[in-house]
Amino acid sequence: MFSFPAPIPYTALYHCGELTFNRPLIMGIANITPDSFYDGGRYNEPMAAAAHIMALCEAGADIIDIGAASSRPGYTPISITEELRRLLPVLELIAPEIPLPISVDTDKMEVAQAALQAGAAIINDIAGLKKDMACLAAACKAPLVLMHQGGGGLKIVETVISFFREKMADGQAEGMRQEQFILDPGFGFGKDTKEDILLLRHLADLHILSRPLLIGLSNKRFIGALTKTKLHERYTANIVASAWAMIQGAAIIRTHDPKALREAAMMITELLNYSAE
Predict the structure, then answer these.
(1) Which residues contact 240 (CB under 8 A, 6 or more apart)?
(2) Could you give the CA distance from residue 222 to residue 153 in angstroms, rounded to a whole number?
(3) What does residue 183 show for φ and ψ, rounded to 5 degrees?
(4) Catalytic one among 86, 108, 167, 220?
(5) Superfamily for the 11-273 domain
(6) Within 13 Å of residue 109, how many CA atoms lie on the same side as its CB?
(7) Residue 14, beta-bridge partner list
């Protein structure tokens, strides 16, 4: 088990400050898409999206993660033009108004580049670091979330570790620094329930990579499978699964419910760091 400060000393610089992991940080999810699995269509209009993002900030988010293209199972890809049409008006509204770092959730280098220019600070790369995204990250020096997609059966942990090592080496060959990488094991992305459970049980093994771990468990399918709950009935299980990840040393928790997870992070941090002396 690990206590905080995080087992990996790490500070990520961004345009108006730094991320310091003295407790698990909470990343609030803002989907501005018509087809996301949890809240698709609720925040399509820029003003509605901006209001939602402000509510996430007030609820205790440390980072805001904005996605303008769905990555749900069976999603329909959209063009760069359409993704930017959804994303940029929201960034124009919120970037000057909130002091928190904004992460852009995308698989397109052109979208990441435009978002950084509009005030985003972090690239959340769900495509596994293609060469153009690595070159952009190297040039702008922004933190980059590298996510794994796919399975690995009983060797899922070893598969994920091997993937991260290979992709970090690829990124560094394009000029990225190791300190830019934040690692997301990709729960639910091409993994079945058994693989998700194995990965979560052995999450601490990923600390061999010496990078902060971003964990996104919120309302994932395997939680529903384990608890026999529908999509909007997984509140308690979300908290328990994310709390387990925090105890295993997760540095960032990506969630639809920042308030509950921030309180959980504070409680776990106090318990792990408590000393009677």
Answers:
(1) none
(2) 15
(3) -110, 130
(4) 220
(5) Dihydropteroate synthase-like (3.20.20.20)
(6) 13
(7) 17
Q: What residue ranges do the domains of the chain occupy?
A: 11-273
Tokens representing 210? Answer: 């010496």
pTM greater than 0.85 (yes/no): yes
pLDDT of residue 6: 47
Active site residue 194: no
Mean pLDDT of the chain: 89
In the prediction, which pLDDT does 244 show?
A: 95
**Cβ atoms within 10 Å, residue 234:** 23
Spell out where the chain has E strands.
Answer: 11-14, 17-20, 25-31, 63-67, 102-106, 122-125, 144-147, 181-184, 214-216, 252-255
Active site residue: 108, 167, 234, 254, which one?
254
Active site residue 220: yes
Q: Which of 247, 192, 193, 190 is nearest to 215 (CA)?
A: 247
Question: For residue 35, what pLDDT is reported?
Answer: 54
pLDDT tens track for 185-217: 999 999 999 999 999 999 999 999 999 999 999
CA quadruple 210, 166, 184, 153: dihedral positive or negative? negative
Q: Give one word for 73, left, alpha or beta, with left for phi > 0 and alpha for psi -120 to 50.
A: beta
Query: Which residues, including other chains, have CB under 8 Å from residue 196's CB and lie 6 or more apart?
Result: 187, 188, 220, 222
Per-residue pLDDT reduced to its tens digit, 70-128: 766 666 788 999 999 999 999 999 999 998 999 999 999 999 999 999 999 999 999 99
